[in-house]
Amino acid sequence: MNAETETNETKIFMVRATVGREQQLINRLAGRIEKEGHEIYLVMKPEEIKGYIFVEAPNRETVAEAIYGLRHAKGVIDNPIKFDQVKHFLEPAAQKIIVNPNDIVELISGPYKGEKAKVKRVDRQKEKIVVELLEAAVPIPITVSLDSIRVIDRKSENTVEQY
Q1: Whole-Å CA distances, 65 to 62, 70, 121, 135, 162
Q2: In total, how many domains does the chain have?
Q3: What pLDDT tens digit does each residue of the chain (163 aa) get?
Q4: Residue 18 resides in a domain
Q5: Cα dihedral across residues 95, 100, 106, 109: positive or negative
Q6: How far does CA 121 lie from the centroid of its chain?
Q7: Is residue 99, in this structure, part of any structural domain at all?
Q8: Do 86 and 108 have their domain in common?
């Protein structure tokens, strides 16, 4: 037995995966963990890293056994990584989006992705805004979440928070 298997401390291992198929690998791995009871505590795929997932387990052998034969799994990196190297992926990025009525925004997700719109109302408690598309023939109010917009132009004269 080596020192790695003798300790009860868990480690984080990187698993190489087919790029773009990381979530499928996670789903297959979760099914196997549930079915076979592998000693794996966490499986994570940071959006910023392509072709890899992170797996928390007591040792490399446990991870290798759990992913063996799974489609889109390419192998386990030999050395575990330190928690400090992945901690920032676990902490939510606190971004405060300041938006006011009459500001011009671009929708960055959803069915109207890429469209520009004018802000009509802001509900900061629900983190939602009501916008009207600029290029629409008929102005239709659309409610979107704050995380699905990007402010392009600040048209509001007063920047006091309005509800």
Answers
A1: 5, 10, 54, 55, 56
A2: 2
A3: 444 444 468 899 999 999 999 999 999 999 999 999 999 999 999 888 899 999 999 999 999 999 999 999 999 999 999 888 888 877 665 566 788 999 999 999 889 899 999 999 998 888 899 999 998 889 889 999 988 898 998 875 554 444 3
A4: yes
A5: positive
A6: 27
A7: no
A8: no
